[in-house]
Amino acid sequence: MSDTSALDLGKSAVVIGDKASSVRPRSKLMVAGSLAFFILLMIATLRIASALVHQAVERDASRRSLEWAEFAISQAPHIANLAEGLPIKTEDWETFKNLTDFAGVFRFKIFSADGVLRYVSDDFNATGEDLGKHNPLASGVVSSGQPFTSVEDGRNKPNRPNLYSETYLPVFDNGRMVAIAETYMDQTNKTAAVRREYAFVGAAMMGMIGLALLIPSIGIWLMFRRINLKNIELKKSQTRAQASDKAKSEFISTVSHELRTPLTSIKGSLDILISGKIIDLSGPAQRLVAMAAKNASILNLLVNDLLDFEKLDTGNLEMIKRPTDLTSLLRDELEILETYGPHQHIEYRLFGDDSALLANVDPDRIAQVIRNLVSNAAKFSPVGGKVEVSVQQSDGSIRVAVGDTGCGISEADQGMIFERFTQVDSTNTRKHNGTGLGLAISKAIIQAHDGEIGVISAVGEGSVFYFILPIGIGSDNEAAGLLKVA
């Protein structure tokens, strides 16, 4: 893994780590929410099951009471006389007593057709205030013509089962309502049986619902577990990447500083030899020394780029701004760069106003940007090509453009050429040397001046690199004063 890849992996680990840490509370909330939903669902299911049991018992009581009423009419034809308050013969009372042995009825009452109590099965001697009273529920059945059933708790009542039902129903004889009967039935065993049935159905439903919730919950748990494991791995990778990046920066800084001193000495010695002040060199020796001096200069530029990269990486790239004439700066740099690659016979042209164009910049750093752009334009231009440099002022800013007649850059590559250690041709057999740091350093310098840098290019049509700098100087009087100081 390369250093830059390790650094990128470290950044990815931070991002995913943050996501995982933010997902963890969310997962707890989801689990808590699922548990709360399951509890509420259980409570709702129990309530629904209880209501269904109650309704089932009431329906069964109503059905059996109707069966009892039909049996009562057939077995006790004098029930209409009883409801109307007519005297009943002694031998007919035995028939009424036998009605408590049918359909589970253990007690019943007979009301008149208008709801007045006339008879209580377990109290044949009931008279006076116990009888002859209107019953509201019986009267309600008279008006509606429909049975009414309620299930009561008999544990605190004498001579009552634990759970019983009271059903008021109209009694008809030949299509005429002749009485209202109130039947009492023991529902303890029936309720228990129905409850068992519904409990089984409810358990099956809860099981299916629990299974439906359990499967995605397990899936979510496994997903979060994988995320946590992945996050641990990425944190380890992040630590390794950070250590590698730190070691890389320290190595670049150390090597660059160690190379700079001997390189300066070598270059100085070669320049003295070329000057002829010490010894006159023969033609071949002069060419060898000149070649060595040129390579030493190239190597010195590479070391300077590495040092600048290290400053960029630590945020220590210093800018000392002062009023600077960019037109003059461009002219001076072009005069120096005209000696670059003489075998290519590159023609340099400067376009723009000859008057001074002042901006508040660091002249050394802007000169470095100009050298990078112009030397790149010359390097990628064919033999006999042209490098055209233009400078112009507009709307409080100065635009400098460097155009070449080279191979051009594809649109896909234009977005990456300003990144560190990036070249359009990054193969081991590329035609042009370099560290791939020049444009990245230039971008950082321009951005430090609150400016903008970019490229306009098409494959086979050459490229135009440009940068725009704000003037950073107020009034014309201030500009004139600064120009004088400059």
Features:
single chain; 486 residues; alpha+beta; Beta-Lactamase; Heat Shock Protein 90; five-stranded antiparallel sheet; rod-shaped
Could you characterize the architecture of this molecule?
- With 486 residues, this protein is an alpha+beta fold.
- Among the domains are: 110 residues, 2-Layer Sandwich (Beta-Lactamase); 168 residues, 2-Layer Sandwich (Heat Shock Protein 90).
- 56% of the residues lie in helices and 17% in strands.
- Strand 9 and strand 10 form a beta hairpin.
- It is rod-shaped and about 160 Å long.
- It starts with a helix and ends with a helix.
- 23% of the residues are buried.
CATH-defined fold name of one domain: Heat Shock Protein 90
> What is the share of helical residues?
55-70%
What CATH architecture label of one domain applies?
A: 2-Layer Sandwich
CATH class of one domain: Alpha Beta
Determine the structural class based on helices, strands and strand pairing: alpha+beta
Order of helices and strands: HHHEEHEEEHHEHEEHEEHHEEH
How many β-strand runs?
Answer: 12
- Average pLDDT, rounded to a whole number, is 78
Q: Which regions are unreliable across 5 or more consecutive residues at pLDDT < 50?
A: 1-20, 426-431
Radius of gyration: 52 Å
Shape field: rod-shaped
CATH superfamily membership of one domain = Histidine kinase-like ATPase, C-terminal domain
Strand order of the largest sheet: 2-1-5-4-3
Major sheet size, sense and barrel closure: 5 strands, antiparallel
Share of β-strand residues = 15-25%
